[in-house]
Design a protein that fits this description.
The complex is a heterodimer. Chain A has three domains: about 80 residues, OB fold (Dihydrolipoamide Acetyltransferase, E2P) (Beta Barrel), CATH 2.40.50.100; about 45 residues, Irregular (Dihydrolipoamide Transferase), CATH 4.10.320.10; about 220 residues, Chloramphenicol Acetyltransferase (2-Layer Sandwich). Chain A is an alpha+beta fold. In chain A, strands 9, 12, 15, 16, 17, 18 and 19 form a seven-stranded mixed β-sheet that branches. Chain A contains eight helices and 19 strands. In chain A, about 25% of the residues lie in helices and about 25% in strands. Chain B folds into three domains: about 210 residues, FAD/NAD(P)-binding domain (3-Layer(bba) Sandwich); about 110 residues, FAD/NAD(P)-binding domain; about 110 residues, Enolase-like, domain 1. The longest helix of chain B has 27 residues. In chain B, a hairpin with a 4-residue loop joins strand 4 and strand 5. By secondary structure, chain B is of the alpha/beta class. In chain B, the strands form five sheets. In chain B, strands 1, 2, 3, 4, 5, 6 and 17 form a seven-stranded mixed β-sheet that branches. Helix content of chain B is about 35%, strand content about 25%. Classes of the chains: A alpha+beta, B alpha/beta. The interface between A and B is large, with 46 and 63 residues.
């Protein structure tokens, strides 16, 4: 009997995921724990490992498709009914020396067309096929409206917009990703003008990650009254300490960064200012104070913004924070972060210093209360004891939820972070 | 290990500088990825440019000139016997054709910021490789593209180590015009190079193990070529094996199955090409080539190792440069996260003999073998005005049509210029055009391309 493999429960109320890559093909023999698929959920791109050793009988999904928890992704054949692994090369008409192989009618690994339907390649131009891949539409499930059954761009767009399961040819498993509107935060955006009037335009679908970012930022910016406090920290001394200890840290396989110290300073300041380490329960009219300190760090990836979370930052030495941060950022950039890596944050740091700028006002990572924006440190003339001396100044912005804290609270909290950054020796001694 | 410390990081390491490799590297660069090409000869263009498609086509052009001059006699124009200056011909081929194109590719690489490293790449893991040879170094990559191509298959049982016994690489070097040349293998390489040497004055004998020239190709297309090469070549032995080859000093003694021994001045072994995946250290990755050395890939050119891609001949048949180039671009785009796939329906194949053969998409024999109903439209060039003005009426245009929808599923051509004409066939198949679309498109008169229109119209008559 064939054994279906369904999208497992991803936890934290997640109900769906987008297939990014299918790492196996029909006929493949797969070991237990070998990666089957890469999926993107909420904010994580994760590999789903095989729960069993067996032969892949059918792959039911394709990249770009959105699948629900419990939906069948792959069917495994039992050990007794192993199919022979299909050769990825087209069968040669005559395995002869110096034979010119006949050109392939079907590309490797393209599944055979369903019985009863038109055989042979799906009739669509290469540009239409590219559009279908972008929109996550399976061309084999579409009836073309063009001459001779040719599938046109409009057919693909219509299939992408159709609610799952409406196309009679496609079962719920093969439902194409629908181009559904973004969730709003109460306000409906007014209709857009017809931009085509002024010149050619192109419509690009949003990736799952982009969609998530868009919805969450809209929610936070609409729901939370943001207020921002500006400050600057003199990190001349901290910079010198980092510079001196870089080689020693590197020998231990750690890349010592300013962000590690920022994390430590913020975590210690949060301990002293617990209302910034909280969430507002508007329904209950209560503030939920968190007795743990897990800090999110905004990481730019080629797919979009991702915020991995470091646990218990207040209780870890700087070197340990630096080590964990390095490993975490690497996992995120390689798309190997787990859902656990991305959840449970209580406060976020967004350090855009590497990209320059004099300051930034990030949007609060809802339902957190505050976010620290960090721009590039610069040497600036500072007056000290009547003398102008060059000092290295780090611009900081603390943006917080005005429902939870007032300007004075924010100023004190920011000053605490600044003070800790300016006394790096204490930061290093703190555990 | 001293070198171990100097590890260079790149986004994409492309192993092999042939058409698949350089296309991949150039596309990577266009998409903002840092790509380097590691090539044993520190050259771009690979076998195709340096010892395959391009030099052989240059020589076939010359063969065509000689043949046209010869045929001109029938039309009342006498050129006299051609005198061939081999040095000048080699120089033209090597410098003006291959050299010029190679310099062009190198300058494209420079302008795109693609570095070419000379040496042999050996994988050490799914993340790194070492380069052995002239520029030893270590590379750590996010992704690698294996584009190592293919090698000529050696004769089963082996050939004697003799410079009289050549593979295709040696033959396009044009070492001399032997008086008697034995070509082992009646496939496209044997027939193309046999045509060159026959035109230059060699007495060419072709021996093919199977019972027809160009095994696997539609017989309708092969027949006009077979008729022509019967006159061009001294002898064609089908269904015949070479049982023995020995260099006697004065020539190569060849024993053909069921025949007397015969002496040749040179022998060309052209019995096929095989994927080149040996010695690459692939055992340190998750890539496992099959028994024929072929690396299995999916439609994005991904191997079983998520960090490794493979394109071109090393991924198996059809071993054609233009397929490799398209695959290279697909691999680069997939690595860059674009929705790309090698989902092409039509990979045109061209045999540059005289007449040329070309086909793409579904062939009539393939349709029959698969039990798939098709309608086949034929247009013989005997009825083509343009073919008549060229003094050539031995061509044929074939369309393989889906009976239900009228879509063009495949095209086959034989005749002079078939290699250029197949472009229309590929466009029709790739874009799912119908016979009626071809019939209603105006084709310039008088041209050979009208044969597409004529063939399509023949299907629609009475409809």
């Amino acid at each position: 009997m064939a054994r279906p493999f369904v999208l497992p429960d991803l936890g934290e109320g997640l109900t769906e995921a987008e297939i990014v890559k299918v790492l196996v093909a029909e006929g493949d023999l797969i070991r237990e724990d070998a990666p089957l698929l890469e999926v993107e959920t909420d904010k994580a791109q994760v590999e789903i490992p095989s729960p069993m050793t067996g032969r892949v009988e059918r792959v039911h999904v394709q990249p770009g498709q959105t699948v629900k928890v419990g939906q069948v992704l792959i069917t495994f054949a039992e050990a007794g009914e192993l199919m022979p692994r299909p050769s990825p090369a087209p069968p040669a008409a005559a395995p002869a020396p110096a034979a010119v192989a006949p050109p392939t009618a079907l590309p490797p690994r393209e599944a055979p067309p369903a019985a009863g339907r038109d055989e042979g390649p799906v009739p669509a131009t290469p540009a239409t096929r590219r559009l279908a891949r972008e929109l996550g539409v399976d061309l084999r499930g579409i009836r073309g409206s063009g001459p001779g059954g040719r599938i046109r761009d409009e057919d693909v767009r219509a299939a992408a917009a159709a609610p799952a399961g409406r196309e009679e040819e496609t079962g719920p498993e093969a439902a194409p990703a629908a181009a559904r509107p973004l969730a709003t935060a109460g306000l409906e955006p007014p209709p857009l003008p017809a931009f085509e009037k002024w010149g050619p335009v192109e419509r690009a679908p949003l990736s799952h990650l982009r969609r998530t970012i868009a919805e969450r930022m809209t929610l936070s910016a609409t729901l939370v009254p943001h207020v921002t406090h500006f400050d600057r920290a003199d990190i001349t001394e901290l910079g010198a300490i980092i510079g001196r200890n870089l080689p020693a840290a590197r020998e231990r396989g750690v890349s010592l960064t300013l962000t590690s110290f920022l994390l430590k300073a913020a975590a210690l300041a949060l301990r002293a200012h617990p209302r910034f380490n909280a969430s507002l329960d508007a329904q209950a009219g209560e503030l939920i104070l968190k007795r743990y300190c897990h800090l999110g760090v905004a990481v730019a990836t080629d797919r979009g913004l991702i915020v991995p979370v470091l646990r218990d930052v207040d209780r870890k030495p700087v070197m340990e924070i630096a080590r964990e941060l390095g490993a975490l950022a690497r996992r995120v950039r390689e798309g190997k972060a787990t859902l656990e890596d991305l959840r449970g944050g209580t406060f976020t740091i967004s350090n855009i210093g590497a990209l320059g700028g004099t300051g930034a006002l990030p949007i609060i990572n809802y339902p957190e209360v505050a976010i620290l924006g960090v721009a590039r440190a610069r040497e600036e003339p500072v007056v000290r004891n009547g003398q102008i001396v060059p000092r290295r100044l780090l611009p900081l912005t603390l943006t917080f939820d005005h429902r939870v804290a007032d300007g004075a609270d924010g100023a004190r909290f920011a000053a605490d972070i600044v003070r800790r950054l300016e006394r790096p020796d204490q930061l290093l001694l703190e555990l | 290990m001293v070198m171990g410390d100097l590890v260079r990081e790149v986004d994409v390491a492309v192993v092999g500088g042939g058409p698949g490799g350089y296309s991949a590297a150039f596309r990577c660069a266009e998409l903002g990825l840092e790509a380097v090409v590691i090539d044993a000869g520190k050259r771009l263009g690979g076998v195709c440019l340096h010892e395959g498609c391009i030099p052989s086509k240059a020589l076939l052009y010359v063969a065509g000139l000689i043949s046209a001059a010869d045929r001109a006699r029938e039309l009342g124009v006498e050129f006299g016997r051609p005198r061939i200056a081999l040095d000048a011909l080699r120089r033209w081929k090597t410098e003006r054709v291959v050299g010029r194109l190679a310099r062009g590719l190198a300058s494209v690489a420079r302008s795109k910021g693609v570095e070419v490293i000379g040496g042999r790449a050996v994988f050490e893991s799914s993340r790194g490789l070492r380069v052995e040879g002239d520029e030893p170094q270590k590379l750590r990559f996010a992704h690698a593209i294996v584009a190592t191509g293919s090698l000529p298959v050696r004769l089963p049982g082996g050939a004697p180590p003799s410079e009289r016994v050549m593979d295709s690489t040696a033959a396009v070097e044009l070492p001399e015009v032997p008086e008697r040349l034995l070509v082992i293998g009646g496939g496209y390489i044997g027939l193309e190079l046999g045509t060159v040497y026959a035109a230059l004055g060699s007495r060419v004998t072709v021996v093919e193990m199977l019972d027809g020239l160009l095994p696997g190709v539609d017989r309708d297309l092969v027949q006009p070529l077979a008729r022509r090469v019967e006159r061009l070549f001294a002898a064609i032995h089908l269904g015949t094996r070479v049982t023995e080859l020995a260099d006697s000093g004065a020539g190569v003694e060849a024993r053909l199955e069921g025949r007397e021994g015969e002496t040749f001045d040179r022998v060309l072994v052209a019995v096929g090409r095989r994927a080149q995946s040996e010695g690459l250290g692939l055992e340190t990755t998750r890539v496992r080539p099959d028994a024929r050395g072929v690396i299995p890939v999916d439609e994005c050119c991904r191997t079983e190792d998520p960090r490794l891609y493979a394109v071109g001949d090393v991924t198996g048949e059809p071993m054609l440069a233009h397929r490799a180039m398209r695959q290279g671009k697909v691999a680069a785009e997939a690595i860059a996260g674009r929705p790309s796939a090698f989902d092409n329906r039509a990979v045109p194949a061209v045999v540059f003999t005289d007449p040329e053969l070309a086909w793409c998409g579904l062939t009539e024999p393939e349709a029959h073998a698969a039990g798939r109903p098709v309608r086949v439209a034929r247009f013989a060039w005997a009825a083509s005005g343009r073919a008549a003005t060229l003094g050539r009426s031995d061509g044929l245009t074939k369309l393989v049509i889906d009976p239900a929808s009228g879509r063009v599923l495949g095209v086959g051509l034989v005749g002079p210029g078939a290699g250029e004409l197949i472009a229309e066939g590929a466009l029709a198949v790739e874009n799912a055009l119908r016979a009626e679309d071809l019939a209603a498109t105006i084709h310039a008169h008088p041209t050979l391309s009208e044969s597409f229109m004529e063939a399509a119209e023949s299907l629609l008559r009475g409809a």
